Amino acid sequence: MTLPLTSESSAVLRACASALRSGQLAPPVSKMALSRVARCSDALATELLRLSSEGMAAAHMALLLDVAADAVEARGAGAASAELVWTGPEASASHSRDTSVVVEELFANAQHQVIVSSFVVRQGSVIFKPLAARMDQVPNLRVRLFLDVAREWKDTRNESELLREFAADFAAQWPWSKRPELYYDPRTVSGDEAERATWHAKCVLVDDDVAFVTSANFTEWAQQRNVEAGVLLRNRHFAGQLRQQFEGLIQSKQVRRLPGF
Q1: Cα distances (Å, whole numbers) of residue 127 to 79, 104, 215
Q2: What is the pTM of this model?
Q3: What is the pLDDT of residue 80?
Q4: I need a labelling partner for 66 at 20 to 30 A (CA). Which of 13, 14, 38, 83 fits?
Q5: Residues 127, 129, 135, 141: what is their CA dihedral angle, to the nearest 10 degrees?
Q6: Residue (of 128, 150, 132, 154) closest to 141 by Cα position
Q7: Residue 242 CB neighbour total at 10 angstroms
């Protein structure tokens, strides 16, 4: 197995393999075509261009990429299956990855579904731009957001008014025509202080393959300037558990779809 293949993340390798099988990517492979499929490293792009120029068929390239992904995942299972993701000052010997880079990579390589949960969203038109672009590239990509719709202290307005205000604010942060599904916990806008709660979970789930759990909100400060810590887990069992947790809340109607999204 060549080093450019096994040095890449399994998510990128499987995204390229899937594109080759579906016909979205076909020999002769070009760098422009690859950029529409996944955020490949220069080394991987060069290797795929080489294999394509030597006449390797799309089905065989896909098989090779799947084998490489299996090797990467097996290596991860035998060693550490978790990576530290960090924002802020770093030690000189740091082995962490930057929060904004990880989030962008997760969005860029999604194939089937994305779940995002956050307490606060600001500068959404910047932070979610890679996700919106991926939704255009992969028409069947399902994106679900779970956000906190807060009722401020002593705010006595009707719940419907708070929801309309939140929807209008988020629409300004999501200027693209194709919208995600957006869910909220009705307790966050309850007029009863004894019942009121906060949606504080911050994580990203992609394709039942990888989960990112972090202290960082979806704001420019949190993703690029604050001191934030998170863990990137490439574990299908954990990712499946996390997805089922969110879907269970939808099915039991403990979270509701925000009108307009």
Answers
A1: 32, 8, 16
A2: 0.71
A3: 47
A4: 83
A5: -10
A6: 132
A7: 21
